[in-house]
Amino acid sequence: MKSLVGTGSYGIPEASRFARVHVRTASRWITGTGAKQSGRLFKTDLPSIGSRHALSFLDLVDLLVVGRFREEGVSFQTVRRVYAHMRESLGTPHPFSHRRLFTDGTTIFMQSLDHIGDPSLHEVLTGQRAMPEILNPYLTQIEYGDDTHTAVRWNIAPGIVLDPARAFGKPIVASEGTTTFMLSQAYWANGEDAEFVADLFDVSPESVRQAVAFEGDFAPGLAA
Prior knowledge:
By secondary structure, the protein is an alpha+beta fold. It has one domain. The protein is built from 11 helices and 6 strands. The strands form 2 sheets. It has a 4-stranded antiparallel beta sheet with strand order 3-4-5-6, covered by helices on one side.
């Protein structure tokens, strides 16, 4: 079994929260529907256990990017074909988690467009909200490894990071490493007293408030 240390592990509902993709949509992209797994896009890094499916950190970043393209009206067929072409051209199972998507997004997508000849992607790239403007607000939050050139951390919110090398990739306060879930639960269980919770976990009151804000912004059921 693949080690979760440095890999991360997210159930589909949790991943859909962070990527802001509807959980049913995320499930379809990850598992497909029916005997032929229609609509499936990803082959995830982590094996399924019965009917339970999990995403790695890199799977999660791929999900984020696909969600933003679909949000902008890029057809699923176009996303699938570009994803497959970029997997081959970049030599990686996670093309949407690759540094080149951030540093050279327009060129690499235009190369893929030339390969598949899909006009719908061309409209996204040359329209008012062209690549990389669509993804820039999100990709600027991603840090990439110097050796792998793939995503290694996601600074998902002020003071909050998803780092597969820490806490199995769960959202943590970047400065102290405590999970946002623990801090927010303690905050609500102790009369919304940030100073008391800060003393309890040896973190700053600001870290507690950042954790509570994050858990509120990314609460279950609020995925797009």
